[in-house]
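In line with agreed milestones, the collection of sequences with tokenised folds has grown. One record among many is set out beneath this paragraph:
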Amino acid sequence: MPGHPFDHPISVDGGPQGLTVLIGTVEQAAESLLNWHDHTPAWRRAVQVCHEAMSGSATAAEARQAFIEAAQEAGRV
């Protein structure tokens, strides 16, 4: 899997079509976040940590945790 892989992928609600999306990398998480309408503090933190992980100043594990927190807050997991 290219990019910055997560140790374990995360299943999230993919939107109004009722699809479930499997997120397995920092890049996939960042792309997914950009499609969300809920721009909460947890969402902002997840976006920030994903970008930091892609630039090398945070780990994929930190980005995964921030993504999970944002997804939980948004009711997507």
